[in-house]
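re: the backbone from monday

yeah here it is again, tokenized this time
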């Protein structure tokens, strides 16, 4: 017989202090057991709500979003009560967002975000409340036999949640539990309140109990063997099946059935993948698209004046710029991102008008002419053949993402401007979740096992460190002989690794994204709850990370602090102080200055952005770059993977090796890098020129090559070869070209990013070459607080 039961109380890894459950595993366990729904109720947060919603739906399980809330106890502030809250609809979700935000910002106590009961008078709608068994106010009174206080608490909660309040009972192996179950059942009958049986799930299987205890010890600073440590959990708190719950509550079938009834009442639908931008103000009667077009055309004319001071040359060049501008504007309007461009342009131009240095660009955004015309970037994309489709692909529409570098010292001023413009309630920074990596988990697990620090540290150091491709314990055991040998030869190490395995990768702490800022179309709490680690609104961040805020439609803007911009600005200030007639700006620096290239040729690049490492200096001495394109290429090549191409690049540049092309049509595309594929944009151009791809289609090809998916690659190979054949290219040549592109696309670099950062490098080198005293003084001023750097 089918048992009516679903889990309504579950702490995942996002409870941070406790909870070992990974969301995918929880959803899979519910599906495997035939539970049609599952609730996520982490401790005072919704950190995992969006990914849980997606994981549950992917498994055919109805997601119920809730929270295990702390409720302030005015009689004893250090003994708050608990209350389980579940959202029945979107209104309930919004109330949860409001309540949690208020708890973290206005009513945090000893690191706990506490709600107050009176808040539910205004924000209790759309929420079902469960009494939290022994941890709730009713349970606390019943445990000490105070029936009058228990009745009063039940009446109060039932009034705050009319027809939506349940007395909760649990049998999780805790002392005194059975007496409380009986008392709770009696109170429920007396007060005519429904009873519900829940199970406080903390981990998947009974075998995970020790790892869960270690997880709690890591968070709270205890060792497993410490006799004084609090033991709040039992080994029974695993993900029980419906059959196990039926056996546990055989005497209370109605309490089990009420879990299904509650899940049936919870019908929250989250709208995902639909971008919601704040409204950008335009002049009366002017559409946002028309306003963007006007500003872009005005900006382009100003840029052309600077790029081509000679009127005749300017007129000769204008048509191709205007054609590209129109193409981009049409795509931006069609994809619905016009407002995004205007919002970014607004705060960047405010920064520039207010003396705050802004970088010339970073990432694929430098490939947009509209961005250049609006003042978002400062690099002419046509001159360097940077592709708009690499940034915003009309054939695969995803949210564009401008990463913006601001002077480190003034970045906060720009964020304050945005708060003033859109309202403080609409702007916040974004959460990030730190995880227990392989190295860290070995040290942490060793500490809770009370092993000597030096011993754990020794083992941790045997795990290779690569931020771009992090090592796991399994990989270290399989591929790092020294680590595997140490573990197999030492019993304590074996125990340490066994304990570390289930903990590896779990969420460990909540931090703030280095540059991500949200600007919502209205109150942020209409979309997601907010969090403040220290209480108050000093460092308010979203409870969702960057992927989840984008999933719910909020738009992330990256405000990154870059010390190089501070140094450039200080240098110019010092030069002007010495020479008031000095009129040069970074935008008007000549890019063919021989003295500047001598700095690079000699490898004298101390304090030169992106070019100061010892290895890069050696390559510069060999390459002897003498044009801006060389700097772009070297910046792109000097990284793991493509670095092996540098000797070939240098030999070809200096004529020691012949430059050859597989087909004449690709010579204009690869000539700037001496026949070597360096950039993702070159792969896209070749697909366009040789095989007739649109640039949007070429971007999809580039992504497929980067991901190396066999079935997708086979399909793309066929399309490429057929397209090339139609353009008169032989099958053999087309196949060779595709193989070459596939090889390079795996580590080809984004040229737009490399070009923008090469420009910053050139600017620092120019100032060092021509104004060395001011430049070095600026560098010292920027790091005055760090004696090692000085």
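seq for it, each position gets an aa:
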């Amino acid at each position: 017989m089918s048992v009516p039961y679903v889990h309504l109380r579950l702490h995942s890894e996002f409870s941070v202090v406790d909870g070992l459950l990974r969301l995918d595993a929880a959803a899979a366990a519910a599906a495997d057991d035939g539970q049609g729904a599952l609730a996520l109720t982490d401790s005072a947060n919704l950190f995992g709500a969006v990914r849980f919603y997606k994981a549950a739906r992917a498994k055919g399980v109805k997601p119920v979003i809730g929270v295990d809330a702390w409720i302030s106890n005015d009689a004893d502030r250090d003994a708050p009560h608990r209350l389980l809250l579940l959202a029945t609809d979107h209104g309930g979700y919004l109330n949860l967002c409001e309540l949690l935000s208020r708890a973290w910002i206005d009513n945090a106590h000893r690191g706990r975000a506490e709600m107050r009961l009176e808040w539910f008078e205004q924000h209790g709608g759309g929420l079902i409340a469960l009494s939290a068994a022994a941890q709730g106010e009713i349970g606390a009174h019943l445990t000490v036999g105070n029936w009058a206080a228990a009745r009063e608490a039940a009446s109060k909660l039932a009034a705050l949640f009319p027809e939506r309040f349940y007395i909760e009972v649990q049998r999780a192996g805790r002392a005194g539990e059975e007496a409380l179950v009986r008392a709770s059942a009696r109170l429920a009958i007396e007060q005519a309140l429904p009873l519900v049986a829940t199970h406080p799930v903390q981990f998947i299987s009974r075998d995970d109990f020790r790892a869960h205890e270690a997880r709690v010890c890591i968070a709270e600073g205890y060792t497993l063997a410490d006799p004084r440590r609090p033991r709040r959990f039992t080994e029974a708190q695993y993900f029980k099946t419906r059959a196990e719950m039926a056996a546990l509550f055989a005497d209370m079938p109605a309490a089990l059935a009420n879990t299904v009834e509650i899940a049936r009442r919870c019908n929250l639908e989250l709208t995902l993948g639909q971008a919601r931008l704040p409204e950008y103000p335009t002049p009366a009667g002017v559409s946002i698209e028309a306003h963007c077009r006007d500003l872009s055309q005005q900006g382009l004319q100003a840029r052309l004046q600077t790029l081509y001071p000679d009127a005749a040359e300017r007129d000769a060049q204008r048509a191709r710029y205007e054609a590209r501008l129109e193409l981009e504007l049409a795509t931006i309007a069609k994809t619905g991102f016009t407002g995004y461009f205007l919002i970014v342009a607004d705060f960047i131009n405010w920064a520039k008008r207010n003396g705050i240095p802004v970088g010339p660009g970073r990432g694929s955004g430098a490939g947009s002419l509209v961005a250049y015309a609006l003042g978002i970037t400062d690099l002419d994309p046509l001159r360097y053949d940077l592709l708009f489709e690499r940034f915003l692909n009309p054939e695969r529409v995803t949210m564009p993402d401008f990463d913006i570098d601001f002077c480190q010292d003034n970045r906060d001023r720009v964020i304050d401007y945005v708060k003033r413009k859109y309202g403080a309630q609409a702007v916040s920074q974004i959460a990030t979740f730190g995880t227990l990596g392989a190295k860290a988990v070995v040290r942490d697990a060793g500490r809770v096992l009370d092993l000597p620090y030096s011993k754990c540290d020794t083992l941790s150091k045997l795990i290779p460190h690569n931020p771009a491709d992090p090592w796991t314990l399994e990989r270290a055991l399989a591929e790092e002989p020294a680590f595997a040998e140490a573990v197999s030869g030492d019993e304590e190490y074996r125990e340490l690794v066994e304990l570390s395995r289930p903990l590896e990768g779990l969420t460990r702490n909540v931090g703030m994204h280095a540059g991500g800022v949200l600007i919502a179309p209205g109150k942020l709490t209409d979309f997601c709850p907010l969090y403040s680690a220290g209480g108050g609104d000093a460092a308010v961040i979203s409870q969702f990370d960057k992927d989840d805020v984008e999933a719910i439609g909020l738009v992330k803007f990256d405000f990154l602090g870059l010390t190089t911009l501070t140094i450039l600005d200080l240098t110019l200030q010092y030069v002007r102080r010495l020479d008031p007639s000095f009129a040069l700006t970074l935008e008007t620096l000549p890019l063919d200055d021989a003295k500047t290239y001598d700095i690079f040729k000699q490898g004298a690049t101390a304090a030169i952005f992106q070019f100061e490492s010892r290895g890069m200096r050696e390559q510069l001495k060999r390459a002897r770059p003498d044009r801006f394109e060389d700097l772009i290429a070297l910046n792109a090549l000097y990284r793991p993977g493509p670095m092996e191409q540098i000797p070939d690049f240098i030999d070809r540049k200096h004529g020691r090796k012949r430059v050859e092309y597989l087909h004449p049509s690709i010579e204009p595309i690869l000539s700037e890098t001496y026949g070597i594929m360096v950039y993702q944009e070159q792969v896209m151009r070749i697909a366009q020129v040789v095989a007739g791809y649109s640039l949007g289609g070429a971007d999809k090809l580039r992504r497929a090559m980067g991901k190396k998916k066999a079935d997708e690659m086979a399909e793309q190979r066929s399309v490429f070869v057929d397209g090339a054949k139609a353009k008169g290219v032989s099958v053999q040549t087309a196949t060779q070209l595709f193989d070459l592109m596939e090889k390079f696309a795996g580590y080809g670099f984004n040229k737009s990013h490399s070009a923008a950062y090469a420009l910053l490098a050139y600017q620092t080198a120019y100032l060092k070459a021509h104004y060395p005293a001011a430049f070095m003084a600026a560098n010292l001023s920027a790091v005055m607080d760090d004696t090692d750097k000085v």
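The chain is about 50% helix and 10% strand. The chain has a mean pLDDT of 93.
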